[in-house]
Structures are given as structure tokens and as C-alpha cells.
Amino acid sequence: MEGSATIGDEIEGTVKVNSDRLRELQAFDETKAGVKGLIDEGITKIPSLFHHPPDKFVKASNSDKTEHVIPVIDLANVGKDPSEREEVISKIREACETWGFFQVANHGIHVSVLEEMKEGVRRFYEQDAEVKKELYSRDQKRPVVYNSNYDLYSSPALSWRDTFVCDLAPNPPKPEDLPVACRDILLEYGTNVMRLGIVLFELLSEALGLHPNHLKDMSCTEGLFSLCHYYPACPEPDLTMGTTKHSDGSFLTVLLQDHIGGLQVLYQDNWVDIPPVPGALVVNIGDLLQLITNDRLKSVEHRVLANRIGPRISVAMFFRSGLQSSTKLYGPIKELSSENNPPKYRETTFDDYMAYFDAKGLDGISKLLHFRL
């Protein structure tokens, strides 16, 4: 048939491109050195594997738009003064229904702990490469996993970052399984964040008009999963991303970021900067909290820009179900739905949600769409 040879050539060409790409990905993976390894080699041009298509949304800075500022909420007297507590709850409600993000100051974690946590992550990535490589793996069952781009083989384009992850609750790793470079501080910081998380979930429950323990009783505070990111300085930051557009597969995320910045949230089709505030932590709603609150609280897409300055260090703590092997179902809370506001999502287990999240990777499409009724 006329044109069949052309179609065949196109198919063959596609396969060739895919196989070439696979070889490139494998070669990068097998170095076990991640993005930092590329920088250590002295590259001045980033590999095409990291090239991203331009984002369709306006690249807007909010530095001159005071109305587009993520709120910073002071928790200093939240447990002491009932009127201040009500004011904080009101601010959290508005932030979570509008932005899906807010920052917290005077959150009870000493600044020295925050600084040591960032330094611990830096020490891990900047230690001897051979020591670090011993932890490099894609086996998610290991207590600590270090690699570059968890969705390396499925994402359309790689992100300019390396990461190590571990579960801190409900079954914390044995200290000897954690990297020496950040062992003590990771456990200490995790304990502090768990304590803060319980306070935040109480405030969120009250913001929804529920009993303070409602979300805690749903096991929202049982699991704590840590991601420690290292974003090396990038020679061509306009061609790539630190982290691509995504929303979080959690109930709630607490983020420690350093002074460099680059975190942005998508608001009304504009990217809005979340500038670092010394001593503050960024808090954002995850997909599962949007699901169980029937869209009352927003899990918003966000991203991290690559930067000529670096490394940028961040530590994301994800509150998740601790019952990962159970059949516990999560669906819209009955108190938050009605005849006029029926459930918008089907019930799902945490395992099933995460299996879908991991299979899809950070493709920029909300995972919640899959669970909508």
C-alpha cells in the first residue's frame, strides 16, 4: 500500500529513539552518582534527558504582587489563647481553601534543629561518592533509598535533583540503617515534625468544623515519610526543572527549604513564588486530604525551578496512612457531604492510591481525577 514504507520507517525511527533514550537512562542510572555526579564532572551543557518543554502557564513572579503572597501563620500562642487560636484556624481555613499552601512560624521546632537538618542533608550528598553509592537503589523496600528521579524510566523528562527517602513512622528505621552523615538529626527532626503534625491536624479538623481529633482518628498522622532533596547548581536552568509540576500523594506535607528559593504554586494559571522565610516551614494539603474533605481543602500543583545557584536543599515530610497493608478505605467524610454536596470521590485504600501515584509518576496531571465519581 502506498505510504506503508513511510509509516514503517516512522515506527522504526520511534523504536530507535526510545532504545537510544533507554540506553542513556541506564548509563546515567549506573553511574550511581546522580545529578551531582554530572556537576562534579564539570559539565557546562545539560544532557537532553533533562530538557523540558516550555510550561503552558505564565511564568509569573509575585514579587511585586502583594495580593499573591502565601500567608505566614504564627503558631506561638495557638495552645494558650483561645481567641488567637480561632484567628489561626480562620487563617488556615482560608489558606487551605484558596491556596492549598501556607507557612508556619513559631511552630515549636528550634531553628538549630532546622539548620542541622539542612546541614545533615548537605553532608550526605557531599560525602565521598563511593560511600554514598552503597545506598543507591531503586528497591523501594529498603529502609533508606538514595537515587536520582524515582520515575527515571517513566517520566517524559528528568528533573534536576537527587533524593534519598525513608519511612520515619510508624516503624522508624534502625539507626544503623540510616546514613551516618544525617542519622541523629533525621530521627530528631522526624520526632519534632510528628509533634507539629498532630497540632496542624487538630487545627485543620477545627477549620472543617469537626472535632479536633477527627483527622488524627482517621490515621492521618500515623505515617511519616521523608524525602531529602539536593538540587545542584544548574548551568542551563531554563532548559529543565528542579521538580516538575505535581500535587502531593499525602494527607499533608511539611517542607523545610533553604534560602535559595524556587518553589512555586500554581494559582489562577499563574506560577506564584513561595519565598523562603527564615525559621518558617511550608505546609501544603495533599491529594488524600482533598479527597476526604470532598474538595473543601485544595491539593494544589506546585513545582521547583532549577537555578544557577546551588545546591538547594529541602526536606519534605509527608503525613500518610500508617496502615499501608490494611484494607482501610478513605472516602469523603460524611459530615462534609450532603444532598446538595454529594461525595465527589470513590473510596480507596492508601495502598491503591499510592500504587496509582507511583505508576503515573510526576506527569503534571492530578492523580485525583482517577478517583472522581
Automatic annotation (TrEMBL):
Gene3D superfamilies per the UniProt record, alphabetical: B-lactam Antibiotic, Isopenicillin N Synthase, Chain (2.60.120.330)
Keyword Oxidoreductase: yes
Short name of any one Pfam family annotated for the protein: DIOX_N
Ranges where the Fe2OG dioxygenase domain occurs: 220-321
GO molecular function: dioxygenase activity; metal ion binding
Claim: rRNA processing is one of the keywords in the record: no
Annotated keywords: Iron, Metal-binding, Oxidoreductase
The protein's required cofactors: Fe cation
Ranges that cross the membrane: none
PROSITE patterns, A to Z: FE2OG_OXY (PS51471)
Family that this chain belongs to: Belongs to the iron/ascorbate-dependent oxidoreductase family.
Protein name: Fe2OG dioxygenase domain-containing protein
Native species: Lotus japonicus (Lotus corniculatus var. japonicus)
